[in-house]
């Protein structure tokens, strides 16, 4: 799948997940990241939507037969258990997809913010 096709798919998911403009789609390795308020809560890679999971979501996704994101590097398989493929029945149900994306966002650590500048004596 081309990077442009992946980006279009990510933009489509972003438009389903939240009001226009509230989910940014950014380049992410060979895919596209879904980012809201500076937090990456999901991505599209090779035509598959992955969302950030907490323990409860992981158990639900595994019960649905979903797999964690994985890739090959230096001749070995690397599994990233923080992100799981979204089950087909969730992708096909806009309300459920929105609910899962909100849960994924809550499972995502917030980016660090700059600390306030201290005044010097």
TrEMBL record:
Alphabetical list of InterPro entries matching this protein: TfoX-like, TfoX_N
Q: Which domain of life is it from?
A: Bacteria
- Pfam assignment, any one: TfoX_N
**Ranges for domain TfoX N-terminal:** 16-107
SUPFAM superfamilies referenced in this protein's UniProt entry, alphabetically: YgaC/TfoX-N like
Q: What is this protein called?
A: TfoX family protein
Q: Organism, per UniProt? A: Rhizobium pisi
What are the leading ranks of the lineage?
Answer: Bacteria, Pseudomonadati, Pseudomonadota, Alphaproteobacteria, Hyphomicrobiales
């Amino acid at each position: 799948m081309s990077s442009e096709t992946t980006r279009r798919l990510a933009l489509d998911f972003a438009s389903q997940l939240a009001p226009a403009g509230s989910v940014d789609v950014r380049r992410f390795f060979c895919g596209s990241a879904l980012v809201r308020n500076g937090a990456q809560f999901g991505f599209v890679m090779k035509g598959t939507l992955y969302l950030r999971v907490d323990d409860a979501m992981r158990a639900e996704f595994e019960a649905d037969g979903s797999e964690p994101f994985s890739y090959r590097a230096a001749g070995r398989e690397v599994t990233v258990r923080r992100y799981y493929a979204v089950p087909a029945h969730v992708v096909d149900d806009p309300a459920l997809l929105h609910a899962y994306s909100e849960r994924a966002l809550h499972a995502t650590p917030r980016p660090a913010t700059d600390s306030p500048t201290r005044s010097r004596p």
